[in-house]
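Let us practice reading a record.
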Amino acid sequence: MSEREKILGRIRAALRTAAPRPGAHGLEPDVLSAKFFPGGSVQQWLPSGGENFAERVEHFRARSAELKTDFQLFITQSEVEAALDKIAAAENWHRIATHEDLLTGSKFNLPALPILKTTGGYDVTELEACNAGITACDALVAQTGSVIVTSRAAGGRALSVLPPHHVVLARREQLVRDLSAGFELVQKKYATHYPSMISVITGPSRTGDIERILVLGAHGPKKLTVLCW
């Protein structure tokens, strides 16, 4: 058997092995706690995510402020649409990118600007020229101020990364306590057909490599806005 055949054989064998549930790496939460935190729980080392919606909102708002994420909570969809128009005018957007989704589709009134849809293929140079990428999400995590997106919920892999301003549209029921609850939402939504990409976005892109000075927009969007209703 040649080396090539051996390598391909190992790949075929690996593909027959089911992947662990996202967030658990093959271990259930109680097993993780017993393994790494004897006599305690992993949750005791993590910040609180809130026990009810009001508390989750306050935790997510506090984490967002620390991360320089612009988080805005509304009651109605029309308020979200008005806020988006206001942001577009303030930042002088000339073109936006989005995707077909329950939140970003025909039932949602986007700013009256040229729109690039990433659904069904697009020119990456045109996406790079857009001022903002507007996406849906899979969950908001109160504990860390994070946004969970997948390639399906966020219009592919590039829409939430290339434009300098990433705007996330979310519903109140998507705001959960912690990452475990976020992964549960993802699992419930996709069952055994997981998207090819799951990403946890915690604030705008940043780096502090040079003299420990924080610079935003280093490897992705410089701004992150979360509009929830």
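A brief commentary: The longest strand covers residues 165-170.
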